[in-house]
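debug: dumping io for the single-chain case to check the tokenizer round-trip. Nothing else runs in this session.
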Amino acid sequence: MSNLSVQLPDSLYKSLQELAKQDGISIDQFVATAVAEKIAALTTEIYLGELAKRGNREKYDAVLAKVPDIEPESYDQLPTA
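debug: decoded output
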């Protein structure tokens, strides 16, 4: 494990304390989880960006053109507001 010293504004630290307490975990656990979630989100964004670069709009349009233009079954329709 590594130690990290971070300075936070008092208001942010107070919110951190309250949220960690609500979750029933330590501040250290809360921060570690928050960092892990951020890393996962950024890593996913990078992965999806790289995947998108391999995409081909013409091939996408060709596949989409094969889908019949019909109304979905009633059980598969989105509710209307």
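debug: round-trip ok. The chain has three helices and no strands.
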